[in-house]
Amino acid sequence: EQGLQLLELGGSVEEDYIRIARCFEATRQRCCRLEQDGRRAREQLARVEAERAALEVKLKHARNQVEVEMKKRHRAEAELEKQERKLQLVLELLMREPWGSEALSKEQCSVLSALAGRRLGVALAPVRRSSAVDESCQSLLSHSDISYDRTEDDVVRS
């Protein structure tokens, strides 16, 4: 009777060992899948990091280009204002001097008079030139609103 119990117990232990072995195999397979998933995730992360680095380089170049273009624009606006002031002075001189109106025909005088009147308003008003793009989105974003600070980028990455 004890032998029979040992056989029954032995059979039960054998089935337990088989179940444990199956659980270990299922766990091993799950670990393999997770390892593959981890490898794919690391590869995807490497690709995304490379893309992010490339985009940061592009952003840096774009920021530098914006800065260069803003400086060019300010220089051009200053030069334009200077030239407009010179033109205004010449027009005023021509209109005031009697020899200026004598040397010019009546038609030329009227054109200069109209031009002087129009330029006078421009010369007295502060000069503000904008491109079509600036005018369309000036209220949304002006060049003074552009921040070159990288702290926001650093916070996002952390």
From TrEMBL:
Signal peptide: none annotated. Keywords: Coiled coil. One of its GO terms (biological process) is mitotic cytokinesis. Residues 38-97 form a coiled coil. One of its GO terms (cellular component) is centralspindlin complex. GO terms for molecular function: GTPase activator activity. PANTHER family: RAC GTPASE-ACTIVATING PROTEIN 1. This is RGAP1 protein. It comes from Ptilorrhoa leucosticta.
